[in-house]
Design brief:
Immunoglobulin-like, alpha+beta, about 500 residues, 3 domains, about 30% strand
């Protein structure tokens, strides 16, 4: 679902069904499901029960002059792929972060075979890769110690949300950008993906009216919509990207029980036996919990908070994707109205819990303004995560790629690019970006091309290879060349990094 073609408007969703004990229910049929689009039942055209199976290990990638941005280990067949994001940018205290770093290795040591896990961190404007997808517990445990050592300095300041330069605004923009980037990075992995977002101080809070569970029985006197309203468009865009690539968000709050600080899971000292106070005055986290519930519910995930069980929470999130039902329907032309539509999935069997994403956007991709296009391109170019929604292959015609004039051949998978029929032609519009980066990630040189591509038929648009040849002047102090393709129609991204070695050291081209 990472690529949206205007020739089809199939809406697909992954649905989880559990019994009262939390066990997955795997014997339901198409007739057991009812899907409501804005409260009206729709006819299911696709139905499948998917049992996630381990991805075959491809082994280390061989050194070659031909580089690909897609990982065979994750794309050969469905995998319960899980990303654990350690968000120190929004971690409330150093104690919380130390607790995460103490408990995460315990979970990783017991990682089940066939559960590929990646570990990323967020401490500033960009996501950092601690370890890419792997089933190697020892390697993941070792890398988990290389995560952020302290909470971000940006959390210490209390700049206002309304101030364009306020630290809360900066944290919000960086956090939303990080979630978008991760979603785009996961675009080519089949099936339902799990994003475990370990964070304790969300930069955006929702008012009671945004979370039904909190609204029931909770006093709403004086409650307001929270910070969601100020970021409505940004959050809508994020939800659309997450749902298009089937990423379910599982926020996990490491603070443990909302009690006096001496009782927290991260506390280094035991609680005093004489203390009877259970809730610290002013520790009202309802707004943050509402945000967690909202993000989880919108994507079909689940929020975990108010519990001293970090590893157990992560394991539950991983286990959720083992058995899913994939349902699909075609909306009526009359209902394709450019709005967000509420989805509801019901089952005829009583006593079951049903979870899936709660909305879809009944709109075709909209044209971006030049400014929006440039901003989006710069955002994906700055992240260390490579996009996988568009297949990109780079062939280096010299061995090795080294300083001096070099020729490279670039191939883009046509089936991953959106083509729109216009004036009897099938047209695609995308950007090709080449940037050279130093060892510290600093941009040294680059070039950008906007590509408008016409094909005579839909078959041509899907089957004819898209190739480019570029001659580049490789900088002396460059460490890598990033090749990036971004579809302007739907925001899909494909990118990879080509190593550059000095002529003295030689080079090995590989993933």
């Amino acid at each position: 679902m990472a690529t949206l073609h205007t020739t089809t408007r199939l809406v697909q969703m992954n649905v989880l069904v559990h019994d009262s004990k939390g066990a997955p229910v795997i014997d339901l049929t198409r007739d057991d499901f009812v899907v409501l689009d804005e409260g009206k039942p729709v006819r299911l055209v696709t139905f499948q029960m998917v049992a996630q199976t381990p991805a075959a290990h491809g082994g280390p990638a061989a050194h070659s002059l031909k580089l690909f941005n897609k990982s065979p280990a994750l794309t050969d067949k469905p995998a319960a792929a899980t990303v654990i994001l350690i968000d120190s940018l929004n971690m409330q205290s150093a104690d919380d972060l130390r607790y995460v770093k103490r408990e995460l290795p315990k979970f990783l040591k017991n990682l089940n075979a066939g559960d590929p896990v990646a570990i990323y961190s967020l401490a500033g404007p960009a996501v950092r890769v601690i370890h890419e997808f792997s089933e190697d517990s020892d390697s993941l445990v070792e890398s988990s110690g290389k995560g952020p050592g302290t909470v971000s300095k940006w959390l210490e300041s209390t700049g206002g949300l309304g101030t364009r330069g306020g630290t809360q605004h900066i944290r919000t923009e960086w956090t939303l950008g990080a979630l978008e980037t991760i979603a785009l990075h996961l675009g080519d992995i089949p099936g339902r993906k799990t994003l475990v977002w370990v964070s304790s101080a969300f930069p955006i809070t929702a008012g009671f009216i945004h979370a039904e569970a909190l609204a029931k029985g909770a006093s709403t006197k004086g409650a307001k919509n929270g910070d969601m309203e100020a970021y409505r468009d940004r959050l809508t865009r994020l939800a659309r990207i997450l749902n298009n690539v089937d990423v379910a968000v599982y926020p996990v709050d490491p603070r443990g029980l909302s009690v006096d600080s001496q009782y927290k899971a991260s506390a280094n000292k035991p609680a005093s036996r004489n203390s009877t106070r259970l809730v610290t005055k002013g520790e009202d986290t309802a707004g943050e919990f509402a945000t967690m519930d909202l993000l989880a519910a919108e994507t079909g995930g689940r929020a975990y908070y108010n519990a001293n069980a970090l590893g157990e929470s992560i394991q539950r999130a991983v286990d959720d994707s083992r058995y899913t039902y994939v349902l699909g329907f075609y909306p009526d032309e009359a209902t394709w109205d450019g709005r967000s539509h509420r989805l509801e999935v019901q089952v005829t069997r009583h006593g079951l819990e049903v979870r899936s994403r709660r909305s879809y956007f009944a709109s075709d991709p909209e044209s971006e303004t030049p400014t929006e296009r440039e901003d989006a391109l710069q955002l994906v170019a700055a992240t260390p995560l490579n996009g996988t929604a568009i297949g990109v292959t780079v062939k280096v015609n010299a061995n090795p790629l080294e300083p001096g004039s070099q020729q490279i051949d670039i191939s883009v998978a046509p089936q991953d690019i959106s083509f729109v029929e216009k004036d009897g032609k099938w047209r695609a519009d995308f950007d090709l970006l080449l940037t050279q980066q130093g060892p510290d990630g600093r941009r040294l040189a680059g070039e950008r091309s906007q590509v408008l591509l016409d094909r005579d038929s839909y078959s041509d648009s899907q089957n004819k290879a898209i190739t480019f040849r570029r001659n580049i002047d490789v900088q002396e102090d460059a460490a890598s060349l990033r090749v990036l393709v971004r579809d302007a129609l739907n925001g899909a991204v494909g990118s990879l990094d080509v190593p550059i070695a000095s002529s003295a050291s030689g080079a090995k081209a590989g993933r």
